[in-house]
Write a structure and sequence with these properties.
about 325 residues; alpha+beta; 2 domains; five-stranded mixed β-sheet
């Protein structure tokens, strides 16, 4: 059951909110796997013992009296109709002696075991994929007690976002030499770290010469394609601040959310197409799982320095 449906229902679906209660992803996976296996063994053992003590076909009055308390457990299940139907079918079929004899035939038992093994093997790739999605960047699942050899082996499996930036040919500014340009707009700092979260100040499409890329209004002086490119440059500038704050993009566990502001002329409504420029780039760098967080986009009347786009980003950090 863990292999076949565990990655779709519980406990190993990637959006299981219980993971946030257990702790790091690797702890959650180990804990829920152990819990699932233990639960399966206990239920099977109790059901077998109970069935041998009170077989359904022995004495109907005695069986009904004995099994009645089990009805109290039915509200605990979400698949009540399936459970009831399966019980009725099993009870009816168990009265047919040829069928019972067939169930105990060695050849039938062997076929059943082979079929069960085949189903398990077929479900294994999806099961492994679910684990990978839950664990995310391999850094997040490294317990501190791991030796250097194990950590080094895991690092070979980690996504290297710095390499990915180079592969994409992105020219990320170095804010250690050229300060974050947002400081010229007011009293602020480029970022703030609290726990395992990195909060970035607003970023705009400032170019290296301190001029805005495609200034103006969407639906007026700026086209959707130009707005998309401005949003993309804004995301590149965000990468610069992330690197400044964390030392390396590889310390990013996931993007939590981004709030986007698009300067629009009256009647322009395609602000979402503009914001894609930023979130598409984040996805290209960090991947589907880590690079896509929550997003909202708002059309506004104006931004400082006549910029057409601004992004406000929150990032989850590895090993904070």
């Amino acid at each position: 059951m863990l292999l076949v449906v565990g990655n779709r229902i519980d406990p190993l679906r990637a959006n299981n909110p219980d993971f946030s209660l257990v702790g790091p992803a690797w702890v959650a996976v180990v804990a829920f796997l152990a819990l699932g296996l233990f639960h399966g063994m206990v239920v099977a053992a109790l059901a077998g013992r109970y069935s041998r003590a009170l077989p359904l076909v022995a004495s109907r009055s005695r069986a009904i009296a004995a099994y009645a308390p089990l009805l109290l457990l039915i509200p605990l299940f979400l698949v009540i109709p399936v459970i009831i139907a399966a019980g009725l079918v099993a009870g009816a079929v168990s009265q047919i002696r040829p069928v019972v004899a067939l169930w105990h035939d060695r050849r039938v038992v062997t076929v059943g075991r082979v079929a069960l093994a085949a189903v398990g093997l077929a479900a294994l790739p999806g099961f492994v994929s679910a684990l990978v999605d839950i664990l995310g960047p391999a850094q997040a699942m490294l317990p501190r007690s791991l030796g250097q050899g194990s950590a080094a082996a895991m690092e070979e499996l980690m996504p290297d976002y710095e390499v990915r930036v180079a592969e994409l040919g992105l020219d990320v500014p170095d804010y250690t030499t050229v300060p974050y340009l947002g400081l010229k707009y007011g009293s602020m700092k480029s970022h703030h770290v609290s726990g395992n979260l990195l909060f970035l100040s607003g970023h705009v499409p400032d170019q290296a010469d301190d001029t805005p890329l495609h200034p103006g209004r969407l639906g007026g002086e700026v086209t959707v394609e130009q707005g998309y490119q401005a949003a993309r440059l804004t995301a590149v500038n965000c990468l610069a601040t992330i690197r400044l704050a964390l030392g390396s993009l590889n310390r990013v566990n996931a993007l939590v959310r981004s709030l986007n502001f698009v300067v629009v002329a009256p009647g322009f409504v395609d602000v979402n197409l503009v914001a894609n420029g930023a979130t598409d780039l984040f996805r290209d760098v960090f991947g589907e799982q880590a690079g896509l967080g929550g997003r909202a986009t708002i059309g506004v009347a104006c931004l400082a320095h006549n910029h057409c786009f601004e992004n406000w980003l929150t990032v989850e950090i590895v090993g904070a």
